[in-house]
Amino acid sequence: MGLRPASARWFEIVVPREDTHDAVEALARRGRVQFEWLGTRAETSEPQHLQEPIARYRTLARDYERFWPEPVFERRCCTLPMEMSASVALHQILHWRDAAQTALLDLKHAEEERETLAQWRPVLRALSRERLDMGALATAGPVLAGFCMVLPAEAQVPGMATHLCQEAALAAGRALIGVLPLSEVQPLCGEAEAAGGHCLSLPDWLRGNPAACLLALPVRLERLDKQIADLIDMLPSIRREDVCKQ
Protein backbone atom coordinates (compact mmCIF):
# COMPACT_ATOMS: atom_id res chain seq x y z
CA MET A 1 0.00 0.00 0.00
CA GLY A 2 1.42 3.36 -1.03
CA LEU A 3 1.61 6.54 1.01
CA ARG A 4 -1.28 8.99 0.72
CA PRO A 5 -0.98 12.82 0.95
CA ALA A 6 -4.12 12.91 3.12
CA SER A 7 -5.72 10.58 5.62
CA ALA A 8 -8.13 8.02 4.20
CA ARG A 9 -11.59 7.21 5.48
CA TRP A 10 -12.59 3.61 4.97
CA PHE A 11 -16.14 2.67 4.18
CA GLU A 12 -18.06 -0.33 2.90
CA ILE A 13 -21.05 -0.24 0.58
CA VAL A 14 -23.59 -3.02 0.07
CA VAL A 15 -25.70 -2.99 -3.11
CA PRO A 16 -27.74 -5.57 -5.05
CA ARG A 17 -25.57 -7.58 -7.43
CA GLU A 18 -27.25 -6.15 -10.55
CA ASP A 19 -26.44 -2.61 -9.36
CA THR A 20 -22.76 -3.26 -8.67
CA HIS A 21 -21.40 -1.77 -11.89
CA ASP A 22 -23.54 1.37 -11.61
CA ALA A 23 -22.46 1.86 -7.99
CA VAL A 24 -18.78 1.50 -8.88
CA GLU A 25 -19.22 3.91 -11.81
CA ALA A 26 -20.93 6.49 -9.59
CA LEU A 27 -18.12 6.30 -7.04
CA ALA A 28 -15.43 6.42 -9.70
CA ARG A 29 -16.89 9.62 -11.14
CA ARG A 30 -16.13 11.36 -7.88
CA GLY A 31 -12.44 10.81 -8.57
CA ARG A 32 -11.64 10.54 -4.88
CA VAL A 33 -12.20 6.85 -4.19
CA GLN A 34 -9.65 4.05 -4.09
CA PHE A 35 -10.95 0.51 -4.50
CA GLU A 36 -9.47 -2.57 -2.88
CA TRP A 37 -10.80 -5.91 -4.04
CA LEU A 38 -11.70 -8.24 -1.15
CA GLY A 39 -13.56 -10.89 -3.14
CA THR A 40 -12.40 -14.30 -4.29
CA ARG A 41 -10.30 -14.95 -7.38
CA ALA A 42 -13.22 -16.70 -9.07
CA GLU A 43 -15.36 -13.59 -8.77
CA THR A 44 -12.77 -11.47 -10.57
CA SER A 45 -13.34 -13.49 -13.75
CA GLU A 46 -16.82 -11.98 -14.20
CA PRO A 47 -15.63 -9.20 -16.58
CA GLN A 48 -14.47 -11.93 -18.98
CA HIS A 49 -18.10 -12.26 -20.05
CA LEU A 50 -17.79 -8.76 -21.50
CA GLN A 51 -14.72 -9.49 -23.63
CA GLU A 52 -16.68 -10.71 -26.66
CA PRO A 53 -19.20 -7.82 -26.80
CA ILE A 54 -16.37 -5.33 -26.24
CA ALA A 55 -14.38 -6.86 -29.12
CA ARG A 56 -17.44 -6.72 -31.39
CA TYR A 57 -18.08 -3.11 -30.38
CA ARG A 58 -14.51 -2.10 -31.17
CA THR A 59 -14.79 -3.71 -34.62
CA LEU A 60 -17.99 -1.77 -35.33
CA ALA A 61 -16.52 1.44 -33.91
CA ARG A 62 -13.51 1.19 -36.21
CA ASP A 63 -15.83 1.32 -39.24
CA TYR A 64 -18.69 3.54 -38.06
CA GLU A 65 -17.70 5.56 -34.99
CA ARG A 66 -17.25 8.76 -36.98
CA PHE A 67 -21.00 8.73 -37.72
CA TRP A 68 -22.08 8.26 -34.11
CA PRO A 69 -22.99 11.11 -31.75
CA GLU A 70 -20.67 12.03 -28.92
CA PRO A 71 -21.27 9.81 -25.88
CA VAL A 72 -23.41 11.37 -23.17
CA PHE A 73 -22.97 10.18 -19.59
CA GLU A 74 -26.03 10.74 -17.50
CA ARG A 75 -27.57 9.40 -14.33
CA ARG A 76 -30.02 6.63 -15.15
CA CYS A 77 -32.59 4.73 -13.16
CA CYS A 78 -33.25 1.00 -13.14
CA THR A 79 -30.48 0.04 -15.55
CA LEU A 80 -30.05 -3.51 -16.79
CA PRO A 81 -27.21 -5.75 -15.59
CA MET A 82 -23.94 -5.02 -17.40
CA GLU A 83 -23.95 -8.10 -19.65
CA MET A 84 -27.55 -7.49 -20.72
CA SER A 85 -26.85 -3.78 -21.29
CA ALA A 86 -23.92 -4.68 -23.55
CA SER A 87 -26.12 -7.09 -25.51
CA VAL A 88 -28.87 -4.49 -25.95
CA ALA A 89 -26.35 -1.82 -27.03
CA LEU A 90 -24.81 -4.12 -29.63
CA HIS A 91 -28.27 -4.98 -30.95
CA GLN A 92 -29.05 -1.28 -31.39
CA ILE A 93 -25.76 -0.65 -33.21
CA LEU A 94 -26.29 -3.61 -35.56
CA HIS A 95 -29.87 -2.50 -36.20
CA TRP A 96 -28.62 0.99 -37.08
CA ARG A 97 -25.93 -0.44 -39.37
CA ASP A 98 -28.49 -2.53 -41.27
CA ALA A 99 -30.90 0.42 -41.56
CA ALA A 100 -28.09 2.71 -42.77
CA GLN A 101 -26.49 0.18 -45.13
CA THR A 102 -27.59 1.87 -48.37
CA ALA A 103 -26.51 5.34 -47.23
CA LEU A 104 -23.19 3.99 -45.92
CA LEU A 105 -22.47 2.21 -49.21
CA ASP A 106 -23.33 5.34 -51.24
CA LEU A 107 -21.10 7.40 -48.95
CA LYS A 108 -18.20 4.97 -49.37
CA HIS A 109 -18.45 5.16 -53.17
CA ALA A 110 -18.70 8.95 -53.13
CA GLU A 111 -15.67 9.33 -50.86
CA GLU A 112 -13.66 6.90 -52.99
CA GLU A 113 -14.55 8.89 -56.10
CA ARG A 114 -13.53 12.14 -54.41
CA GLU A 115 -10.17 10.59 -53.51
CA THR A 116 -9.75 9.50 -57.14
CA LEU A 117 -10.51 13.04 -58.33
CA ALA A 118 -7.83 14.41 -56.01
CA GLN A 119 -5.31 12.00 -57.55
CA TRP A 120 -6.31 12.97 -61.09
CA ARG A 121 -5.89 16.72 -60.56
CA PRO A 122 -2.03 16.84 -60.79
CA VAL A 123 -2.08 14.37 -63.70
CA LEU A 124 -4.56 16.42 -65.74
CA ARG A 125 -2.63 19.60 -64.92
CA ALA A 126 0.59 18.00 -66.18
CA LEU A 127 -1.15 16.82 -69.37
CA SER A 128 -3.11 20.03 -69.98
CA ARG A 129 -1.06 20.94 -73.08
CA GLU A 130 -1.47 17.51 -74.67
CA ARG A 131 -4.10 16.72 -77.29
CA LEU A 132 -5.20 13.40 -75.82
CA ASP A 133 -8.77 12.14 -76.13
CA MET A 134 -9.46 11.22 -72.51
CA GLY A 135 -12.90 9.89 -73.36
CA ALA A 136 -11.43 7.45 -75.88
CA LEU A 137 -8.99 6.19 -73.24
CA ALA A 138 -11.74 5.77 -70.65
CA THR A 139 -14.00 3.83 -73.02
CA ALA A 140 -11.33 1.82 -74.86
CA GLY A 141 -12.24 -1.81 -75.45
CA PRO A 142 -13.00 -4.61 -75.70
CA VAL A 143 -9.48 -5.72 -76.69
CA LEU A 144 -7.57 -2.66 -75.51
CA ALA A 145 -7.85 -0.72 -72.26
CA GLY A 146 -6.79 2.78 -71.27
CA PHE A 147 -4.50 3.16 -68.28
CA CYS A 148 -2.86 5.85 -66.16
CA MET A 149 0.13 5.00 -64.03
CA VAL A 150 1.77 7.24 -61.43
CA LEU A 151 5.39 6.38 -60.62
CA PRO A 152 8.28 7.80 -58.61
CA ALA A 153 10.64 9.85 -60.78
CA GLU A 154 13.34 7.18 -61.17
CA ALA A 155 11.12 4.07 -61.08
CA GLN A 156 11.11 1.80 -64.10
CA VAL A 157 8.42 -0.70 -65.13
CA PRO A 158 9.88 -3.31 -67.50
CA GLY A 159 6.57 -4.05 -69.22
CA MET A 160 6.14 -0.43 -70.39
CA ALA A 161 8.76 -0.62 -73.12
CA THR A 162 6.39 -2.14 -75.71
CA HIS A 163 3.25 -0.07 -74.99
CA LEU A 164 1.95 3.16 -76.49
CA CYS A 165 1.84 5.86 -73.82
CA GLN A 166 2.38 9.53 -73.08
CA GLU A 167 4.61 10.61 -70.19
CA ALA A 168 4.20 13.73 -68.07
CA ALA A 169 6.33 15.07 -65.21
CA LEU A 170 4.64 15.55 -61.85
CA ALA A 171 5.82 17.47 -58.80
CA ALA A 172 6.70 14.17 -57.14
CA GLY A 173 7.27 11.62 -59.87
CA ARG A 174 5.78 11.11 -63.31
CA ALA A 175 2.60 9.88 -64.96
CA LEU A 176 2.28 7.46 -67.87
CA ILE A 177 -1.03 7.36 -69.74
CA GLY A 178 -1.98 5.33 -72.79
CA VAL A 179 -3.49 2.04 -74.02
CA LEU A 180 -2.49 -1.59 -73.75
CA PRO A 181 -4.11 -5.02 -74.15
CA LEU A 182 -6.82 -5.55 -71.56
CA SER A 183 -5.22 -8.77 -70.33
CA GLU A 184 -2.05 -6.89 -69.38
CA VAL A 185 -3.63 -4.22 -67.18
CA GLN A 186 -3.50 -6.12 -63.88
CA PRO A 187 0.06 -7.49 -64.34
CA LEU A 188 1.33 -4.04 -65.32
CA CYS A 189 -0.35 -2.37 -62.33
CA GLY A 190 1.25 -5.00 -60.13
CA GLU A 191 4.65 -4.01 -61.53
CA ALA A 192 3.84 -0.36 -60.90
CA GLU A 193 3.01 -1.07 -57.24
CA ALA A 194 6.21 -3.09 -56.87
CA ALA A 195 8.11 -0.03 -58.18
CA GLY A 196 6.47 2.24 -55.58
CA GLY A 197 3.72 3.61 -57.82
CA HIS A 198 0.06 2.90 -58.52
CA CYS A 199 -2.52 2.86 -61.31
CA LEU A 200 -5.44 5.26 -61.48
CA SER A 201 -8.78 4.03 -62.74
CA LEU A 202 -10.16 5.95 -65.71
CA PRO A 203 -13.64 7.13 -64.67
CA ASP A 204 -16.39 7.45 -67.27
CA TRP A 205 -16.74 11.21 -66.68
CA LEU A 206 -13.47 11.87 -68.53
CA ARG A 207 -14.40 13.62 -71.76
CA GLY A 208 -12.39 15.72 -74.22
CA ASN A 209 -8.74 16.68 -73.77
CA PRO A 210 -6.94 16.94 -70.40
CA ALA A 211 -7.48 20.71 -70.23
CA ALA A 212 -11.25 20.29 -70.61
CA CYS A 213 -11.27 17.55 -67.97
CA LEU A 214 -9.29 19.80 -65.62
CA LEU A 215 -11.88 22.56 -66.02
CA ALA A 216 -14.70 20.10 -65.32
CA LEU A 217 -12.99 18.81 -62.16
CA PRO A 218 -14.21 21.54 -59.71
CA VAL A 219 -17.81 21.03 -60.81
CA ARG A 220 -17.48 17.31 -60.27
CA LEU A 221 -15.88 17.86 -56.86
CA GLU A 222 -18.60 20.29 -55.80
CA ARG A 223 -21.28 17.79 -56.77
CA LEU A 224 -19.53 15.03 -54.84
CA ASP A 225 -19.02 17.21 -51.76
CA LYS A 226 -22.74 18.00 -51.70
CA GLN A 227 -23.63 14.33 -52.09
CA ILE A 228 -21.28 13.39 -49.25
CA ALA A 229 -22.63 16.15 -46.98
CA ASP A 230 -26.24 15.09 -47.69
CA LEU A 231 -25.46 11.45 -46.91
CA ILE A 232 -23.69 12.34 -43.65
CA ASP A 233 -26.65 14.56 -42.66
CA MET A 234 -28.96 11.62 -43.38
CA LEU A 235 -27.24 9.29 -40.90
CA PRO A 236 -28.43 11.11 -37.73
CA SER A 237 -32.05 10.79 -38.86
CA ILE A 238 -31.49 7.05 -39.33
CA ARG A 239 -30.17 6.97 -35.75
CA ARG A 240 -33.30 8.69 -34.45
CA GLU A 241 -35.58 6.34 -36.37
CA ASP A 242 -33.59 3.41 -35.02
CA VAL A 243 -34.03 4.55 -31.42
CA CYS A 244 -37.75 5.07 -31.89
CA LYS A 245 -38.18 1.54 -33.16
CA GLN A 246 -36.57 -0.01 -30.11
Description:
- Helix 2 packs parallel to helix 3 (82-99) and helix 4 (101-126) runs antiparallel to helix 7 (210-245).
- This protein folds into 2 domains: 17-99, no CATH class; 104-230, Alpha-Beta Plaits.
- Strand 2 (164-170) and strand 3 form a beta hairpin.
- With 246 residues, the chain is of the alpha+beta class.
- It is built from 7 helices and 4 strands.
- The longest helix has 36 residues, at 210-245.
- The protein has a 4-stranded antiparallel sheet with strand order 2-3-1-4.
- It has helices spanning 20-30, 51-64, 82-99, 101-126, 134-138, 185-194, 210-245, and strands at residues 144-151, 164-170, 173-181, 198-200.
In short:
The chain has about 250 residues and is of the alpha+beta class.
Question: Characteristics of this structure?
Answer:
2 domains; 11% strand; Alpha-Beta Plaits; alpha+beta; elongated; 246 residues
Give the helices and strands, then pairings.
Blueprint: H1 20-30, H2 51-64, H3 82-99, H4 101-126, H5 134-138, E1 144-151, E2 164-170, E3 173-181, H6 185-194, E4 198-200, H7 210-245
Antiparallel strand pairs: 1-3, 1-4, 2-3
Number of helices: 7
Weakly predicted, low-confidence segments:
none
Main CATH class of the largest domain:
Alpha Beta
What is the mean predicted local confidence, pLDDT?
A: 82
- The rough form would be described as elongated
Oligomer: single chain
Helix content range of the residues, please? 40-55%
Q: Strands across the major sheet, in which order?
A: 2-3-1-4
Main sheet overview: 4 strands, antiparallel
| CATH topology-level fold name of the largest domain | Alpha-Beta Plaits
Total beta strand runs: 4
Number of separate domains = 2
CATH architecture of the largest domain: 2-Layer Sandwich
Q: Helix-strand pattern, N to C? A: HHHHHEEEHEH
Strand content: 5-15%
Radius of gyration: 29 Å
User: Whole-Å distance between the termini?
Assistant: 47 Å
Q: Specify the structural class.
A: alpha+beta
